[in-house]
C-alpha cells in the first residue's frame, strides 16, 4: 500500500467513520433525552457484556482476515483468498451460533447476579442474535480492508447506523415507550436490526466483488487456510477477551463503588451516564480519525516489514505519532476552553462541564496509546499487545476499586484512572516499538509542537472571547471548526519541518 493510498483510504474511512460517529452521537443524544442520565447509565452497563462476548466471537478476526486477504490479493492468488473467506465463515457461523445460544441462556444469571439489575434482562435477550451477525460481518469487513476496497464497508456502516437511529425513534414513538426498561430494550432491538442489515449488505457487496476474481492454479487446503487465520486472530481474541473481561468487571464495579462512597444507586447510574455516556463521548469523538488510520495501519506496516522497507516503516510510525499527539492535544484544549458549552451544544445539559474538562486531560495519552497498539499489531507483536493490555486492564480495575470508593473523589476516580492507565499503556507500547525500529524525537519537533500547542490554546481563547455568547450555536461551531483547522495546519507544519 503506497503512502498516497494509505492517506487516501484513511481519509475515505475517516469520512465514513465521521458520518457513523455523528449518527452515534445523534443516537446518544436521543438516548439521553428519552432515558435521562439514569437510563444512559443502565445502557452503559449492558454494552460491556455485549462487547465481551463479541471479543470471544470475532476478536482479531478483522485484523487476521485483512492481513491474509492483503497477502493473497497482492499475489493475485484469488483462489486462496476466496477459499479463506469461505472456510472462515463456516467456522465462525458454527461458533457464533453456539455462543449466542449460551449468551441467551445465561442472560437471567448475567442480569440478576453479575449486573445486579433485573431491568437489563430483556435487553440481553434482544442483543443475543446480533452476536451472530457481528461475527460474520467481521470476516467480510476484513476482506474488504485487505483488498483495498474501503468504499463498501464505509457505505454500509453509514447506512446501518442510519437504520439504527430510524428504528429506535420509530419503536419509541409507535409503541409510546415511557419506562427505562422498555426504552433500553428497544435500543438493543435496534442494534440487532442494524447488524442484520449490515451483514446482508456486506454479503451482497462481497458476492458482487468476488465475481471479478479468477481462480489461480495453486490452492492450499481449507484446514491450513483456517489455521493461518486463527493463528493471527486467536492471540488477538484472547487479548481482547481478557482485557475486555477485566474492563467489564471494572465497569460493573463503578456503580457499586459509588454506592460505597455514599451515593444512592439511582444517582450512581446518573453519574455514570453523565461521565461515561456523555462526557467521554464528546472528548473522544475525534478519535474517529485515529481508529480509521489504525485499521489501515496494520496491513500497511505488515507490508513494510515484509518488504524490509524500514525507512517507510519508521516514517509512517512518526507521522501517525505526530497526528495522534496533536489531535489529542487539540481535543484537550477545545474541551478545556468550552466544556460547559459543549455539554449544552450536544446534550442540552449544563452539568457536564466539569466532567468534560477533567476527562480531556487524558486525551493526548489515550489517542497516542490507541495508535501504538495498532503499530504493534502491524509488527506482529500480538504477545506484547496482550501483556501490555492486561497490565493496563488490571491497573484500571485496582484504581477503580480504590479511587471511586473515596467519597471526595467518587466518579472523578474514573478520569484519574483513565489518565494513569493510558500513560502506562503508552510507555509500555513505545518501549516495545523501539525494540524493532528507532523512534527519534528531535529537539526541533518538541519546540515546534509546543509552540503550536500554545498557539492553538490562545487562538481558541480569543475566539471564545470575541464572539458574543448570544450567538451560542454559531459561536461554538466556529470554535470547533477553527480548532480542527489549526490541527490540520499544525500537522502540515510539523511534517514539513521533519522532512
From TrEMBL:
Localization terms from the record: Membrane
Keywords linked to the UniProt accession: Membrane, Transmembrane, Transmembrane helix, Transport
What positions belong to coiled-coil segments? none
What Pfam families does the annotation carry?
Polysacc_synt
UniProt topology in membrane: Multi-pass membrane protein
* Superkingdom classification of source: Bacteria
Spell out where the chain crosses the membrane.
Answer: 12-31, 43-65, 85-110, 122-143, 163-180, 186-206, 226-255, 275-299, 320-343, 355-376, 385-406, 412-430, 442-460, 472-494
Give the UniProt entry's GO cellular component terms: plasma membrane
Q: Which PANTHER family match?
A: FMN_FAD EXPORTER YEEO-RELATED, MULTIDRUG RESISTANCE PROTEIN NORM-RELATED
The family note in this entry says: Belongs to the multi antimicrobial extrusion (MATE) (TC 2.A.66.1) family.
Name under which the protein is recorded? Multidrug-efflux transporter
Gene for this protein? spoVB_2
Amino acid at each position: 500500500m503506497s503512502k498516497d493510498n494509505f492517506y487516501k483510504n484513511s481519509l475515505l474511512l475517516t469520512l465514513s467513520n465521521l458520518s457513523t460517529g455523528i449518527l452515534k452521537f445523534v443516537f446518544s443524544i436521543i438516548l439521553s433525552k428519552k432515558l435521562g442520565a439514569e437510563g444512559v447509565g443502565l445502557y452503559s452497563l449492558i454494552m460491556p457484556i455485549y462487547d465481551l462476548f463479541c471479543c470471544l466471537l470475532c476478536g482479531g478476526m478483522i485484523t487476521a482476515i485483512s492481513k491474509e486477504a492483503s497477502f493473497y490479493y497482492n499475489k493475485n492468488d484469488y483462489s486462496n483468498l476466496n477459499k479463506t473467506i469461505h472456510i472462515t465463515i463456516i467456522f465462525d457461523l458454527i461458533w457464533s451460533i453456539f455462543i449466542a445460544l449460551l449468551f441467551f441462556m445465561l442472560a437471567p444469571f448475567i442480569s440478576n447476579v453479575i449486573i445486579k439489575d433485573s431491568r437489563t434482562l430483556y435487553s440481553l435477550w434482544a442483543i443475543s442474535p446480533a452476536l451472530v451477525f457481528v461475527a460474520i460481518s467481521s470476516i467480510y469487513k476484513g476482506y474488504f480492508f485487505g483488498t483495498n476496497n474501503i468504499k463498501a464497508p464505509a457505505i454500509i456502516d453509514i447506512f446501518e447506523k442510519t437504520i439504527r437511529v430510524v428504528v429506535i425513534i420509530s419503536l419509541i414513538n409507535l409503541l409510546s415507550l415511557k419506562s427505562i426498561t422498555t426504552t433500553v430494550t428497544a435500543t438493543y432491538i435496534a442494534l440487532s436490526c442494524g447488524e442484520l442489515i449490515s451483514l446482508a449488505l456486506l454479503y451482497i457487496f462481497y458476492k458482487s466483488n468476488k465475481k471479478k476474481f479468477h481462480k489461480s492454479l495453486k490452492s492450499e487446503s481449507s484446514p491450513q487456510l483456517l489455521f493461518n487465520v486463527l493463528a493471527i486472530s486467536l492471540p488477538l481474541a484472547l487479548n481482547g477477551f481478557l482485557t475486555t473481561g477485566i474492563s467489564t468487571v471494572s465497569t460493573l464495579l463503578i456503580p457499586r463503588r459509588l454506592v460505597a462512597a455514599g451515593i444512592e444507586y439511582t444517582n450512581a447510574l446518573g453519574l455514570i451516564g453523565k461521565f461515561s455516556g456523555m462526557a467521554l463521548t464528546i472528548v473522544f469523538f475525534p478519535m474517529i480519525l485515529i481508529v480509521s488510520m489504525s485499521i489501515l495501519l496494520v496491513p500497511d506496516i505488515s507490508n513494510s516489514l515484509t518488504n524490509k522497507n524500514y525507512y517507510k516503516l519508521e516514517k509512517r510510525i512518526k507521522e501517525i505519532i505526530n497526528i495522534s499527539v496533536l489531535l489529542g492535544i487539540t481535543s484537550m484544549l477545545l474541551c478545556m476552553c468550552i466544556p460547559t458549552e459543549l455539554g449544552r451544544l450536544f446534550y442540552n445539559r449544563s452539568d457536564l462541564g466539569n466532567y468534560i474538562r477533567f476527562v480531556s486531560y487524558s486525551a493526548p495519552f489515550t489517542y497516542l496509546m490507541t495508535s501504538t497498539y495498532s503499530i504493534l499489531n502491524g509488527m506482529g507483536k500480538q504477545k506484547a499487545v496482550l501483556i501490555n493490555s492486561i497490565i493496563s486492564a488490571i491497573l484500571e480495575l485496582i484504581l477503580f476499586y480504590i479511587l471511586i470508593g473515596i467519597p471526595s473523589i467518587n466518579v472523578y476516580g474514573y478520569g484519574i484512572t483513565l489518565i494513569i492507565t493510558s500513560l502506562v499503556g503508552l510507555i509500555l507500547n513505545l518501549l516495545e516499538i523501539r525494540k524493532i525500529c528507532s523512534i527519534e524525537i528531535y529537539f526541533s519537533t518538541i519546540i515546534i509542537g509546543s509552540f503550536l500547542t500554545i498557539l492553538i490554546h490562545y487562538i481558541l481563547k480569543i475566539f471564545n472571547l470575541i464572539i458574543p455568547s448570544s450567538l451560542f450555536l454559531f459561536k461554538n461551531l466556529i470554535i470547533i471548526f477553527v480548532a480542527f483547522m489549526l490541527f490540520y495546519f499544525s500537522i502540515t507544519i510539523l511534517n514539513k519541518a521533519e522532512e
